[in-house]
Amino acid sequence: MINGAHVVLYTRDAEADRAFLRDTLGWAHVDAGHGWLVFQAPPAEVACHPTDGEPAHELMLMCDDLDATRRQLAGRGVEFTRPVEEARWGRVTALRLPGGGELALYEPRHPRP
Length: 113
What we know:
Blueprint: H1 14-24, E1 29-31, E2 37-39, E3 60-62, H2 66-75, E4 80-87, E5 90-96, E6 102-108
Parallel strand pairs: 3-6
Antiparallel strand pairs: 1-2, 4-5, 5-6
């Protein structure tokens, strides 16, 4: 029935963030018309976490080796906005998108589906 998910990043600079996904992360894409790029995202998983605050959503990019991925992305000029945090479920940091947004980047330590 459901065959995928479409993630939308609302940004102050869509062109810069599209270039980041295309050039820095090297994600495959198609032009849906008039320069509107749609990217093929890597495989994904979905988890539901409890909260005492307002319900929200978060996009986290995953990698197998956080230290190596950070070095590779830093070499491409990526700014990291949070130090690496060691959590029970994995290691996590965050990177700045050119449009001003932030994406978490993590190395999972939990079983993966």
